[in-house]
């Protein structure tokens, strides 16, 4: 995280430990949440790993993940708001343009609930928005031995951060903490009334 300047990605108060608005009802998550996500994924974001960042927003976490997987790794950031995909590319180009040029970071526009099958399977999947359940496509695209970190909304409306491992083809789930994320939803539900 120290290797990636949040000032390139946050329109204001980049070093405050709080989420900041980036437009389109999206936020750049708070540093402590980025740190927690990277921490849970650290043994899977190793040199040469293949990773997916769903709801890549500002692009900050995608770049952090790319720093961890190094020159031979690839991180796909998928985001459904086209304006945010554009913004993230702009943010990354400020000081990390080589990651895009060398293909270590690929920013795509699309519905992250479908994952991104073209580059699957993924050793690590991070989901930056809360879903009602775990999208099946993401489970399918998780590599053997891989780990997904995803905020999931319960029936009572509370959100938990879930750690999901694929071990010998079996899914192992664990709730690691309570969290608050923006919803993983459709583009229309997120921004239609504007
Ligand atoms: N991790 C990012 C953004 C977090 S906000 C950061 O820290 O900058 C969550 C993001 O998920 C928003 O940018 C929102 O537009 C996006 N999002 C919500 N639902 C989505 C979906 N179905 N597919 C892709 N992106 C989605």
From TrEMBL:
Does the keyword Cytoplasm belong to this entry?
Answer: yes
Q: Tell me where it mainly resides.
A: cytoplasm
PROSITE patterns named in the record: PCMT
What keywords does the record list, in alphabetical order?
Cytoplasm, Methyltransferase, S-adenosyl-L-methionine, Transferase
Which reactions does this protein catalyse? [protein]-L-isoaspartate + S-adenosyl-L-methionine = [protein]-L-isoaspartate alpha-methyl ester + S-adenosyl-L-homocysteine
Q: Where in the cell is it found?
A: Cytoplasm, Cytosol
Top enzyme category? transferase
Q: Which Gene3D superfamilies match?
A: Vaccinia Virus protein VP39 (3.40.50.150)
Q: What is its EC number?
A: 2.1.1.77
Q: Which InterPro entries match?
A: PCMT, SAM-dependent_MTases_sf
Annotated NCBIfam families: pimt (TIGR00080)
The entry's function note states: Initiates the repair of damaged proteins by catalyzing methyl esterification of L-isoaspartyl and D-aspartyl residues produced by spontaneous isomerization and racemization of L-aspartyl and L-asparaginyl residues in aging peptides and proteins.
Q: What is this protein called?
A: Protein-L-isoaspartate O-methyltransferase
């Amino acid at each position: 995280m120290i290797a990636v300047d949040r000032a390139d990605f946050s329109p204001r108060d980049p070093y405050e430990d709080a989420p900041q608005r980036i437009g389109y009802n999206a936020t750049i998550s708070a540093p402590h949440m980025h740190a927690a996500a990277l921490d849970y994924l650290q043994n899977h974001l190793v040199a040469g790993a293949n990773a997916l960042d769903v709801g890549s927003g500002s692009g900050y976490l995608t770049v952090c993940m790319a720093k961890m997987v190094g020159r031979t790794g690839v991180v796909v950031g998928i985001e459904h708001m086209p304006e945010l995909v554009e913004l993230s590319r702009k943010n990354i180009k400020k000081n990390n343009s080589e990651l895009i040029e060398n293909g270590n970071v690929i920013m795509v526009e699309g519905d992250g609930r479908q994952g991104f099958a073209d580059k699957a399977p993924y050793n690590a999947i991070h989901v930056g928005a809360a879903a009602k359940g775990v999208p099946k496509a993401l489970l399918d695209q998780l590599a053997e031995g891989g780990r997904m970190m995803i905020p999931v909304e319960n029936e009572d409306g509370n959100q938990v951060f879930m750690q999901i491992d694929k071990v010998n083809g079996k899914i192992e789930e664990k709730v690691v903490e309570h969290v608050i994320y923006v919803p993983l939803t459709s583009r229309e539900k997120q921004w239609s009334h504007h």
